[in-house]
Design a protein that fits this description.
Largest sheet: 2 strands, antiparallel
Helix content: 40-55%
Distance between the termini: 20 Å
Structural class: alpha+beta
Strand content: 5-15%
Shape: flat
Number of domains: 2
Number of helices: 4
């Protein structure tokens, strides 16, 4: 089985920010599986503003380019289906079969 990789910072405004602080616990075992940043209300506000700014560029992107980008994401999710399902199971405690359905 492949190891599960969990990013320990947040993508905001075109860069990775934050440092690992808050534990992520596997509810089935009680084991800490990662730490994620606590960016607080300021960081959340910056993330929302960054998303709003990115929307302006997305609006001016042609349907063909949008389609290509979304297809790339679809393909990426498909290639990592099993890893993503294991991550959902580990993080949320849901059955693996249910996690796979959610990914699909």
């Amino acid at each position: 089985m492949m190891a599960i990789s969990i990013r320990e910072n947040c993508w905001v405004g075109g860069q990775w920010v934050g440092r690992p602080e808050l534990p992520v616990i596997n509810p089935a075992t009680g084991e800490e599986i990662a730490k994620v940043p606590d960016v607080g209300s300021k960081g959340a506000t910056e993330a929302v503003a960054s998303g709003a700014n990115a929307l302006e560029g997305w609006r001016s992107t042609t349907a063909s380019v949008r389609s290509s980008i979304l297809r790339g994401w679809f393909d990426l999710i498909g290639r990592h289906r099993d890893e993503l399902a294991r991550l959902l199971t580990t993080e949320q405690g849901k059955p693996l079969a249910e996690a796979r359905v959610e990914i699909d």
